[in-house]
Amino acid sequence: MEELVIIAHRGASGYLPEHTLEAKAMAYAMQPDYIEQDIVLSKDNVPIVIHDIHLDAVTNVKEVFPKRKRVDGRYYVIDFTWEELQKLNVTERFDYQTGKPVFPDRFPIDKSHFKLHTFQDEIELIQGLNQSTGKDIGLYPEIKEPAFHRTEGKDISKIVLEVLAAYGYKDNNSNCILQCFDFQENKRIRNHLKSKLTLVQLMEFEHEKDSLEIISEYAQGIGPSLSLLKDNKFVENTRKKGLFIHAYTLRTDVMSNWKTKLKAFILTNRIDGVFTDQPDQVYNLTHTR
Question: Could you report the per-residue pLDDT of 228-249, keeping only the tens digit for each?
Answer without folding.
Answer: 999 999 999 999 999 999 999 9
